[in-house]
Amino acid sequence: MNIYIYLFLLFGAAFGLATFSYQHIFSEGPDKVETPGGDSTLGGRLLWALVCTFLWPIMVLTGLNSARILAKRKREALAKR
Q1: S-S: 12 plus which of 18, 30, 56, 81, CB 3.0-4.6 Å?
Q2: For 65, how many CA atoms within 13 A lie in the half-sphere containing its CB?
C-alpha cells in the first residue's frame, strides 16, 4: 500500500521540478508576472517542488484550465486578423 503513496509523492516532485519555469500558469493565471530577481534560485525550485509534491493533482487541473484560456485567447486573436 505504501508504494502508491511513494509513487504519488515521487510523481509530484518530478512534476514540480519539470514545471518550475511555467509556474505562472499554475499559480497566477496565464499572464506571466515579471520577477524582480531574474535568476531562479535553488530555494525557489525546491519550494515549488515541495508544493507540487503534495498538490500536483490540483496543479494539473489549474494548468489545464489556463491552457484552455490561452487557446481561447489565441483563437480570438487569430479571428480578429
Answers
A1: 56
A2: 11
| Residue 3 near residue 44 (C-beta atoms within 8 A) | no
d(CA 11, CA 50): 11
Contacts of 20 (CB under 8 A, 6+ apart): 40, 44, 45, 48, 49
**Residue ranges, the chain, pLDDT below 50:** 36
Task: Please tell me the pTM assigned to this model.
Answer: 0.71
Residue pair 7/35 in contact (Cβ under 8 Å)? The answer is: no
Say how far apart CA 55 and CA 39 lie, in whole Å: 25
What digits encode the pLDDT tens for the residues 23-40?
777 665 555 556 545 556
Q: Are 29 and 37 in contact (CB under 8 A)?
A: no
